[in-house]
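Hi support team,

I submitted a single chain yesterday and got back a structure, but I'm not sure I'm reading the C-alpha cell output correctly. Could someone confirm the output below corresponds to the sequence I sent? I've pasted both exactly as they appear in my results page.

Thanks,
R.
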Amino acid sequence: MNTTAHLTDGMNNLQISSSKEEMDVCACCGKEGSDLNICNKCKGVKYCNAACKKKHRTKHKKKCKRRVAELYDIELFKQPPLPEDCPICFLPLPLMSNGKRYYGCCGKIICSGCEYAPVKDNFGNKIKEQKCPFCRTPAWSSDEEYNEWLLKRVELNDTEAIYDLGICYRDGEYGFAQDYTKAFELFVRAGELGSANAYCNIGRAYYNGEGVGRDEKKAKHYYELAAMKGNVDARYNLGVTEENMGNWERALKHYMLAAGGGYEKSLKQIQTLYTNGHATKDDYTKALRAYQSYLGEIKSAQRDQAAAAYNRRYISV
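Hi R., thanks for writing in. Yes, this is the structure output for that exact sequence:
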C-alpha cells in the first residue's frame, strides 16, 4: 500500500473518531447532536430542547443540586486572588485594613510603610508639610475638606470612595451623621463594583440588623462573596459560623485560608481545633507556615517602623 495513502486513511479515521467524541447526547431522549443545550446550573448534562429538559427535571433535580453545591464549594475554598501592589513601593498591599490607607485626593490605596515614610522633594529634602505620599497634595485640614474630596471621588464612581463613605455613615465619622440605611446602600453599590470589603460589611449589616432586617442566611452569603474575593475578616467569620455548627472540616478550611492571609486569630482558632481533636498537628503546622510566608511577602523595614510607631502611639504599656 502507498505510504501517502496509508497516512491519509489514518488521518481520516482520526477525524471520524474525533467527531464521534465531540458528539453530544440528550440526557432525556438519547438523541445525538453537536448543538444541544447544556443545563445552565450544573453544566453536566445536555438536552435537545426545552421539552426534554422539562421531562427530565424530576430525575435530574437531586443530582443537579448536589453538583451545583460541589461547584460552589470549589469556588468558595479556592485560593483567593493576590492583593494589589502598593503604587509606591510595589510590595503587595496587606489584606488587613490596618496596614493600608485610602487617599481621597488621588484615589490611591497606600501601604502603612509608604504612608509613614517622610515625603521628600525632587532634591531629596524632607518636606515638613503633610502631603499625600503619591500625588503630593497637601493633607486635608478639616472634616469638611476631607468630605469634599471623598464626595468628588464618589461622583466618579470610585469603588473605594463609595465604600469609605459607607463606613463614614456606619460609624458616624468625619461629620457624617450615623445612618445604617445609607451605609448599607453604599455598601451594596460598592459591592456591585467588586469591593470585597463592601460585601463583608453587607454580611455584617445582615448579621447585626444594621440598616436592614437581621438575616443570618444572607449574612453568610455575603461573607462568602467577600471571602472569595480575598477578604480575610469575612473568611474568619465563616470559619466561626461553621465551627459553631459543628462543621469542623469546613471551619478548618476557612481558618487555613484566613491564616494564609495574615489573620492571626484564625491561626489561634486552628490551634484550638487541634487541642480539641478537630484538627491535626500537620494542619496547624501548614497554617503556621502559610501565615509566616504571607507576612514575609508583605514585610518591609518601613512597614515595621510604621507598626512600631502605631503601637507606641495607641497601645499603652
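A quick pointer for reading it: Residues 141-230 form a domain with the Serine Threonine Protein Phosphatase 5, Tetratricopeptide repeat fold (CATH 1.25.40.10). Let us know if anything else looks off.

Best,
Support desk
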